[in-house]
Design brief:
Strand content: 25-35%
Number of helices: 5
Shape: globular
Number of strands: 15
Radius of gyration: 28 Å
Distance between the termini: 90 Å
Number of domains: 2
Order of helices and strands: HHEEEHEEHEEHEEEEEEEE
Strand order of the largest sheet: 4-12-6-9-10
Largest sheet: 5 strands, antiparallel
Structural class: alpha+beta
């Protein structure tokens, strides 16, 4: 009888220990899940904040260059052009220069710029002296303001980005496409010192799964403006485009981060790619529709050795 009691007590103890261990495992798992969810929440919050911030800065730039007529201000600075723009009695505007003139109807603004989302104008006469207005700058340049201590992804190329750029009929078909070339030079302009990190990654894998698998990376502290030059894995800036590093977009895609390491100082930058002095479209914007502007905002976060990618499509009224 005593042996049976001892056996029952032993079984009861084993059951209690098993229940306790099960509860402990459940609590531990729940704690890990909570920690993981909390971590994912902060990562998602940060990346969505970056996406919205970038989209807001892109659309502000896009609207500014298509409402300010600033190409005319640029023309006035070139005294050798002998350019004048006059309002005529019938409400039209007449632009005159050394070798010709053109008259526009009253739908042209006071700056003699029709702000048509193109570098060319809406009439048959070309701008004088081969000038272009600034309507496309938001699509050919990347500009962000980076707060203190933020390490921000400022450039990435993907198939989705390429497709949206291709879909914009305002983009000139004569311009070279970034992803068709093996020899692009990167021009970067900064208002202060910053840390730059450049990664090239497997484009085929990214197309399939949006997974970023790094092949090579380059890093350095840089300032001011000029072309990116890479020797071994060190980055510097060079005034001569012939000394610049040639980026091969046919075989690789690139990911660029810029870090503002200064306290209480906003980092401003401008990025564009150059090949034989030709311009290219960088920012995925489609402003060819009559009523809306569509753009893709993208961001990548570095999480230890991993890269977390996200993009969002935004639509704005014109």
């Amino acid at each position: 009888m005593k042996k049976n009691k001892k056996a029952l007590i032993l079984i009861y103890a084993i059951v209690l220990v098993t229940i306790w261990l099960s509860l402990a495992i459940i609590i531990l798992n729940d704690t890990n899940i909570l920690e993981l969810n909390s971590q994912n929440y902060f990562i998602n919050k940060k990346i969505y904040n970056n996406l919205n911030s970038k989209a807001n800065q892109i659309i502000k730039f896009e609207r500014k260059v298509n409402s300010d007529g600033s190409w005319w201000t640029d023309l006035e600075e070139w005294s050798w052009s002998n350019i004048s723009c006059r309002l005529q009695a019938d409400g039209s505007y007449k632009l005159e220069w050394d070798s010709g003139s053109v008259v526009w109807s009253d739908w042209i603004d006071d700056n003699c710029n029709d702000d048509n989302y193109k570098s060319s104008n809406s009439w048959t006469q070309d701008y004088p002296n081969w000038f272009e207005d600034n309507d496309e700058l938001a699509r050919t340049n990347i500009n962000y303001i980076i707060p203190p201590f933020l390490d921000l992804n400022i450039f990435l190329n993907s198939k989705k980005i390429e497709d949206l750029i291709d879909s914009n009929s305002n983009n000139s078909s004569s311009w070279v496409k970034l992803w068709d070339s093996e020899s692009w030079s990167l021009y970067l302009s900064l208002n202060t010192w910053a840390i730059i990190n450049i990664f090239d990654f497997d484009k085929n894998l990214f197309n399939l799964s949006e997974e970023i698998k790094i092949n090579n990376y380059y890093s350095w502290t840089i300032s001011w403006s000029w072309y990116i030059k890479i020797i071994w894995k060190d980055i510097s800036l060079d005034t001569d485009i012939n000394n610049s590093y040639k980026f091969n977009f046919k075989n690789n895609w690139f990911l660029i981060f810029l870090k503002n390491f200064k306290k209480d100082y906003l980092l401003e930058f401008n990025l564009n790619w150059v090949q034989n002095w030709k311009k290219i479209y960088l920012t995925p914007i489609d402003d060819s529709k009559s009523d809306i502007i569509k753009l893709i905002s993208y961001d990548v976060l570095k999480d230890n050795e991993n890269f977390i990618f996200k993009d969002l499509e935004f639509e704005y009224k014109k």
